[in-house]
Amino acid sequence: MPRGLLPAPLSPPPLGRIGALEVRLAVSPREVKKAQKLRYKVFYEEMSAIPDIQTQVSRRDRDAFDAICDHLLVIDHDTITKSGEAAIVGTYRLLRQDVAQRFSGFYSANEFDVAPLIERHSGLSFLELGRSCVLRPYRTKRTVELLWHGIWSYVRRHGIDVMIGCASLEGTDPDCLALPLAFLHHHARAPGDWQVGALPGRRVAMDRVPAEAIDARAALHMLPPLLKGYLRIGAYVGDGAVVDRQFGTTDVMIVLPVSAINERYVNHYGIDATRYAA
Description:
The chain is α+β, with helices and mostly antiparallel strands. Strands 1, 2, 3, 4, 5, 6, 7, 8, 9 and 10 form a 10-stranded mixed β-sheet that branches. It starts with 15 loop residues before the first strand and ends in a 9-residue tail after the last helix. Helix 6 packs across helix 7. The chain contains 9 helices and 10 strands.
């Protein structure tokens, strides 16, 4: 090798593949920046997040947690960018408990009191999921399946027992979201051992409609696809919501013990995430 030249970083083996779409972890700061640009496009240009000056100038959604997280990417090898690289079309941010404890904790702890939950299950390993987004043309079943295949592969690889994270409903007026919030409160609330509450200073009540007055079909129609996907898999929802005015959302806490995952989904992806293995 000529002096002064370093080998290019090797891409890790993909966590899954469907046709031209591949899911794997980011391997360089450059790829993380691309994921941040994707997040900016979805959160700030398509949705109603409000950028600060730094975010607006950089056109990247970023915070201090990005440096300690793993970044799951969906890459379309049939779409080549101006830089000659395959396009990143979806991303998820993953933060393991052992990493969070060495730094500043979990991101979701800014909205929810996660410490008692973790203390009650001190023998289990937690993983925080966040910053999920997919470009509009790729919001299809196979892209979502590939993301979940990547997460499941990561969970198995790292011996994760519980997944947590904030899930968002668009809008900052809880009264306009009364029906879906109440549905989650009455029909998906976490049982005692898995309960986690919104921070007292930020808590918004979710039981805004009596259980007997809820139109379940209408409530489900109002839930975003990601949140419905969590529920189908077997996730619970914490007590109380939090309004996030920067992102223009109302957030609920998702708790998904691996032991509670619907057996149908485990069988679908394979106990060791082999269904879409590349």
